[in-house]
């Protein structure tokens, strides 16, 4: 029971960190909007929307988990209703009716790697 409690505590702590952490730059030259702004104005940050606070001192942003950039690029060729192989070779992806690529996330073992 003790190990289960520790695991639960670590899981809750990790989820809490995701909920309260402000987005940070992703190394792609785009950074979290900061500083004075026009009250009520909106800007986009990755897949989130940021709205300037009423006092104009900064932005409040939605905190959606954004897909990695390579998944966003693959969606450019996504045909609704069509299935695609995942680049990892063992998962599959399907294009939703809205053009969003949704992939299974099974743990894959590379067949070229010998099992010990």
TrEMBL record:
Pfam families associated with the record: Pacifastin_I
GO cellular component, one term: extracellular region
GO molecular function list: serine-type endopeptidase inhibitor activity
Signal sequence bounds: 1-21
Keywords of the record: Disulfide bond, Protease inhibitor, Secreted, Serine protease inhibitor, Signal
Presence of keyword Signal: yes
Name listed for the protein in its UniProt record: Pacifastin domain-containing protein
Organism: Gryllus longicercus
């Amino acid at each position: 029971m003790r190990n289960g409690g520790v695991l639960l505590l670590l899981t809750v702590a990790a989820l809490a960190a995701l909920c309260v952490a402000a987005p940070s730059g992703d190394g792609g030259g785009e950074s979290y909007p900061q500083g004075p702004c026009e009250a009520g104005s909106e800007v986009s940050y990755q897949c989130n929307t940021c709205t300037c606070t009423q006092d104009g001192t900064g932005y409040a942003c939605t905190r959606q988990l954004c897909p990695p950039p390579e998944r966003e690029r693959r969606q450019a060729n996504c045909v609704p209703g069509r299935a695609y192989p995942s680049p990892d070779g063992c998962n599959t992806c399907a294009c939703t009716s809205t053009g969003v690529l949704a992939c299974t996330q099974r743990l894959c073992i590379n067949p070229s790697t010998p099992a010990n």
